[in-house]
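RESIDUES AND SHAPES:
===
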Amino acid sequence: MLFSKNLLIRTLRCKNRNTPGVLGKLTTLIGETECYVGEIRTLEQGSRYTMRDIDVLFRQEEELDHLVKRIREELPDLVTLLEVRDEVLSLHQDGKIKTVPRFPVMNLGDLRKVYTPGVANVSRLIAEDVSLAERYTWATRTVAICTNGSRVLGLGAIGPLASLPVMEGKAALLSQFTGLNAVPILLETRDPKEFVDTILHIEKSFGAIHLEDIETPQCFEIEDRLIEALDKPVMHDDQHGTAVVALAAMISACQKTGKDPGAIRIGQVGLGGAGFAIARLLMGFVEHAVIASDLNTDAQDRFAKVGGEISNLDEIMETCDLVISTTGVPGLIKPEMIHDGQIILALSNPNPEISPEEALKAGAALATDGRFVNNLLGYPGIWRGAIDAGVRRLTMEMYTAAAHAIAELAPADEILPSPLDKRVHAAVARAVAFTAAQMGLARHPVDEDYLARELEAPAALE
């Protein structure tokens, strides 16, 4: 259950007897208590015992308590539970990101170059020609990750401060996988105008605006107004990052099942921020209407205005070859609704509308959930490509190119590649930058030599 924001994690430090099958019995017990096995790390191995740290993921403390009790009662001679540790809290202590200088100040000469008096000349140059800020500051290589914490996945309206650990994580991953800087920006307002005005006052510090975890319908207004006002790329990741990865999943699923993407009937269940963006991007790709359902009439009207077809869950399940669901309602799709050969992407996290196992058992040709259709596959490379190319706007063509790049790297036995695969982020960046150049939207040179030098050489992508 990787990437589910509201799952809990604890580390069990276990001393296991070196008898065949002991680790298997322990992991089976974890599964029987409806917990999930994460990373397993061997710490010590002797002739009679092996000490391991086992990460366990669960939804409620009662599940962990039940697991601990069963280990001690059922495996007393095989497993000694030494400690239950909360490594997540330890990892997050003092935050997950920091700002460090690129050039250390080791002597007076360094100080004079990095700060006064040398820096004054750089400031004068920028004052005379503001375009030089791209060359002489970090602004164009830095992304602002902006939120008001009003719609945090799986957690709801927890507010900006409580969402900061999530934003720090997004920033850390962006830096690790692309080498770009990222700064979380927390806004204590749920008024779209105040949100937009605040960003407009600080935008010069950044080369791109990444919107995250903002409630609907305010997220649509905020993004639209910022795109119109700013001369730099803006993306609401919950909309377009999700849509890119969902499109990649559709492309890959069609390839693996022999379906023609242009001929299949697509159903979208749920038209919130993610659902609306997914359906809209897929309509542009297949060039025919997507059928969608949502209980909110405003959401229905919004989708109809962009050419979508409004229906209901029963009709979608009965007639569609591909069904994507983003409702946040676990168990919404019943096994008896699925017909043979369907592709099911139940993306609500952590509890999908139907589990992949249930969907496959009911006859689906292919099924997955939000654990694997993850935004991390998209947004780092999208930002790297957009910033390298110097685009002022992200377009549907760039998003589609990113989706193709992701799908092409899917292993034979998986719908999508791992987001930890460094090749994915370089491929997405390359696709976005090349598409921008082909559309005449790149302000910076984009060619084979440039991409080889800039996308494959950085330590962040090695």
Notes: The longest strand covers residues 8-17. The mean pLDDT is 92. The two ends are 26 Å apart (CA to CA). The CA atoms of residues 90 and 210 lie 28 Å apart.
